[in-house]
Write a structure and sequence with these properties.
- This protein is of the alpha/beta class.
- It is built from 20 helices and ten strands.
- The protein has an eight-stranded mixed sheet with strand order 1-2-4-3-5-6-9-10. A two-stranded antiparallel sheet has the order 7-8.
- Strand 1 and strand 2 form a beta hairpin.
- Helix 8 packs across helix 9 and helix 11 packs across helix 16.
- The longest helix is centred in the N-terminal third of the chain and has 31 residues.
- It starts with a helix and ends with a helix.
Amino acid sequence: MRMSQVGGSRTWREEIASFVEDSDVQYKRNSLSIASIDSKGSQFNSVSSNETQKVEPENLTDQVKGFVKAWGELLVDLYRGCRDIVHQSLVTDDSYIVQKFGRPVAKVSGKLRFLNEYLPEDRDPILAWPVIFFVFILALFALNVNSSHDNSVVKKIQIHPPSATLLLLPDGRHIAYHERGVPANKARYTIISPHAFLSSRLSGGIPGVRESLLEEFHIRLLTYDLPGFGESDPHPTRTLNSSASDMLYLADTLGVSGRFWLLGFSSANLHVWAALRYISDRVAGVAMFAPMVNPYDPSMTKEETSKIWGVCGRKRRLMFFLAKRFPSFLSYLYRGSFLSGSHSQFEKFMSVSLVEKDKAKIEGKNFQKYWHRDVEESVRQGSAKPFIEEAMLLVSDWGFSIADLQMKNKCPGNGILPWLKSIYSKAECRLTGFAGPIHIWQGLDDQVVPPSMAEYVSRILPQTVLHSLPNEGHFSYFFFCDECHREILLTLFGYPEGRSINQQLQR
């Protein structure tokens, strides 16, 4: 067989052109010559020979880099292939997975759609949230690694032997209480004080108050552990109504005749508000220090809401958000701080940045001793549930607003049934709300409770007397201050019986 038959009818020019095209060299039919081809070939041979002389063998580093790069490209291609397979086979409308889980996933994603408001406008939520979740997991892992390598000396939490006096409630639970001041038969005033978050009955109502001062004013001071705190049994379904009921039963059982005063500090005022709503007829007056209110209270104006949220730091806003939307996450945060079995810095517990006057107060020996003992008693049971319940109660729907505590006439509503009743009997109106005195002391430099919360209360409740404290923080005025404690009791009760004004001024 001839070569012309194998190669077909192609001429020698076409053969040369085909080789040149394979080497990416443009070929012009009329300008190609054998001499030019030979010259180019010689040039190519000289270049290749020079390159061969210049090429050096790759070292180990270059080989590793090339290997890793090649594997990276393979993994990227593998990911793209798997993604395409998933999209084409598993995520179609007629697939088993979509038919089985599509509706529940759509329902959950609909509830979580509000989170997309926190993303930048140019970010796709489908791509952004997996990245955020992955970074969050890495951050938690880094925090655990850092905490495990922390060699700083940390005081361990000690659980002390039981020492409280217990009272049996009608539902079978026990409530632990502590009594200070004068006995019941000598008391002119009885003060009941629930404790704040991360505290207990050992706070004493007024931290650092002298027994002699309570005896001078004939005051009986009662403090108690909230359900699940200290030595009090937990409540299976704790509410603000049940909190007021526990307080009332404690007062009646301990022989508190007539009305009593309420005293609350910071978040403890949550239970003071509950008492004013449900047992207001037994309350003589109220003393509040840096009172907290529900930051989601709908009766606030937009200006008041913006002031409150503007003062709250990012960590505090995050705590409010988690308590309202995802309270189960609080368990992990609490167990990493005050339920970890060791005392940490005070600012980490509060998730805030304290002012200098507060820092100076909490660094004192008296405060440190008091704080450590109070925290140890608060976390005695080792459960995060009561702390989560306390956080949830603050930001959830109370069933009432502070505006409902205003004194007003409540008359039968409009409708057929009230109209029929009015035919046979005269409609009677009754007073609702709280008419007693309310005193609020608020530090204007408080970074824990925004001063605008106290301003909101004074606007809503006209009988409120607001004592604004310039240059005072959250703890500096109320904790371990003998002069401040005397001033507070003088404001509430006047001068003690049996002493003249001149004698009081000389002290």
